[in-house]
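Hello everyone,

My group is preparing for a crystallization screen and wants a predicted model to guide construct design. The compound we'll soak is fe (ii) ion. Before spending weeks at the bench, it would help to have a computed complex in hand. I've included the protein sequence and the ligand's SMILES below. Output in structure-token form would be ideal because that's what our pipeline reads.
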Amino acid sequence: MPGVRKFEHAHLYVPNVEETASFYEEVMGLRRRSSGDVVRLETDPETHYDLYDNHHTIALEEGTAGIDHFAIRITESEFESVESRLASAGVEYEIHEGAEPGQQRSIRTSLPGGLPIELEVVEKAPDVDRQQVLPHSGVHHAPKGQDHITLASSDVKTDAEFLRDVLGFKISDVAMAGPDMWGMAFTRWGDHHHDVALIVAPTREQTGLHHIAWQMTDLNHMKQLVDVLGKAGHEIDIDFTRHVLGNNVSLYFRDPAGHRVEITTEVAKLDADTPTTFHEEDPNDIVTFWDGTHPPLGEEEDH
Ligand SMILES: [Fe+2]
Ligand SMILES: [Fe+2]
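Reply:
Good plan to model first. Here are the tokens for the complex, ready for your pipeline.
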């Protein structure tokens, strides 16, 4: 989906592909783009402009629950600069041509903590049929698209500085977890407050995906999705809350594989030159504006 949100897709391992794919279709309102060993799903186009580059948002493959990689959308000219930055920093990377459906080419590398990242240029359709997308033709409760990804990192500072200094992200906010210890970092590629967020993992074994967030229009839209979620018998992990860092309103639950899902609205926009803000107070004091609606950090129920 074109626009300011740059997190493009995540490729996940799930124990039961059909069960998880059905959840994303029936509860989240996504549609299946392709089947086979890897099932790819996408959100409905919101407007005909989305048809310029329809692209999958989530890929599911059989395996122990976890993440294979996540992707950030970049332009052709950004591709050249990312490649030269990686080369001059001496970081290993691979270039792939059309390795995934809807992908023109991509650079694959890893964060210092080992989390794989893909920076991809998506294929553009030069001429679209606007009649394919009628106003309000989509599933009413379905997210407008992907919003951001949050990763559990063994070293938030090192990973965030790699995103900033090597790949060219900006860091919007950092929550300190102690002297010289970064607990959370929120990084942006464009002006969306966070495209990739990092949160400290209690142990190295717990690094990987923390959650994937989906963009909703407003609170009413979130309610519509939660109505479907509840009716389908799923539980909410964290109820409606407003985060201080990002200012977004959020609610969290799990997919059938146990991956944490966030639905969110009102994520802040920042200028390109907005500096990083460091928050020295207890991260629990800035996790929400609505006291009592967010469990203490690190104490969310682990399924
Ligand atoms: Fe990918
Ligand atoms: Fe989030």
